[in-house]
Specification:
By secondary structure, the protein is of the alpha/beta class. It has 13 helices and twelve strands. Strands 4-1-7-8-12-11 form a six-stranded mixed β-sheet, with helices on both faces. Strands 2-3 form a two-stranded antiparallel ribbon. Strands 5-6 form a two-stranded antiparallel sheet. The longest helix has 19 residues.
Length: 340
């Protein structure tokens, strides 16, 4: 069966993402790239074209009771900028035609990625050899055992190893896709997608997959309200004592519950949110770097510079030069409104 034309002409051409469905597919994983990348816009235009493809377009077996129909064939991989393999139960015997297409895409320099057990398919194709990678934690040991050339990071939410990116299962696939949007187009675009999808904008790849208490307690003891309170006060020098006081708990209890709910400490979470705020301000305003640092809670430009370099390998000025959007002007040199 032949596929429909996999790509439409765009002027200017946008980033093409071929999502490979390897039967039997995990339907949830298959939906993630279409939702995340399909929601990303830059200057009011779609940032990506997404095409879901497989060996024989049409109905594809899934791991659930859902019926999955895939419209495109593997020819979509030939000109895709990113190739992403989603979860599959084919952990040892993926179709050879898929493996050949994946190797060809990697050889010509496409960005290669996987969600959940899609890592097994990339590994079968040899794409992960010599790279760090992760997968769903239940299957991490099997991946390491079957593919000793792959450096498996069993607990990471996602791993970005240059041209190859892999994620754990289910919602970690959302984290990986948001990370790719952030890498391509900056924090403001990625955060807008996260808001549309009603998910957390930032979860670092090194965060653990398994949290002691992933579901908020029914007694209302979740720290979500305290996190929201802190987000509105990132410019202030928040302390553990202040966060604990807002939550009505001791500092020790705050640390324990925060780790259980988010997989990280309160101070590391604050640092991540401040970096994200600074990135948005650098992209969306022409505030001086010193003012961006102040509004983000870093106090000094040197502190902001140090943390940006540690997190993303770019200085504030370099980040702004790469990701800043043109600012609308209603007249000559209009003032930038101050945040109340």
């Amino acid at each position: 069966m032949s596929s429909a034309a996999p790509w439409s002409d765009e002027v200017p051409r946008v980033h093409r993402i071929a999502v490979v469905a390897v039967p039997p597919v995990t339907a949830f994983d298959l939906a993630i790239p279409d939702v995340v990348f399909g929601s990303a816009e830059v200057d009011g235009r779609p940032a990506y074209q997404v095409r879901i493809c497989t060996v024989e377009p049409g109905p594809v077996a899934s791991t659930s009771s859902l019926q999955v129909v895939v419209p495109h064939g593997l020819d979509a991989l030939a000109s895709a900028d990113t190739v992403l393999v989603t979860g599959s139960a084919s952990r040892a015997d993926a179709d050879g035609r898929i493996l050949a297409a994946l190797r060809a895409a990697a050889d010509r320099g496409a960005r290669m990625a996987s969600i959940c057990t899609g890592a097994f398919v990339l590994a079968q194709a040899g794409v992960l050899d010599g790279h760090s990678a992760t997968t769903y934690w239940v299957q991490a040991g099997a991946l390491a055992h079957r593919f000793p050339e792959v450096r498996v990071v069993p607990q990471a939410l996602f791993v970005d190893d240059g041209p190859v990116l892999t994620s754990a299962g289910l919602t970690a696939g959302i984290d990986l896709c948001l990370h790719m949007v952030r890498t391509d187009h900056g924090a403001a675009v990625a955060n807008a997608v996260a808001r549309l999808a009603a998910v957390s904008a930032v979860r670092e790849g090194g965060q653990g997959q398994v949290l002691p208490s992933p579901v908020a307690a029914a007694d209302g003891s979740s720290l979500a309200a305290t996190r929201a309170w802190a987000l509105a006060r990132l410019a202030e020098p928040l302390t553990l004592a202040e966060l604990a006081a807002h939550a009505g708990v001791s500092v020790r209890t705050l640390n324990r519950r925060f780790q259980a709910e988010t997989g990280t400490t309160p101070l590391q979470w604050l640092l991540t949110q401040r970096v994200e705020q600074a990135r948005e301000l650098l992209e969306s305003t022409d505030l001086a770097v010193e003012r961006v640092a102040d509004r983000s809670g870093f106090v000094t430009a040197d502190s902001l510079r140090r943390h940006l370099l540690q997190r993303i390998g770019m200085t504030p000025r370099a980040y702004r030069a790469h990701f800043a959007r043109p600012q609308p002007r209603s007249g000559p040199n209009p003032p930038v409104p101050e945040r109340s």
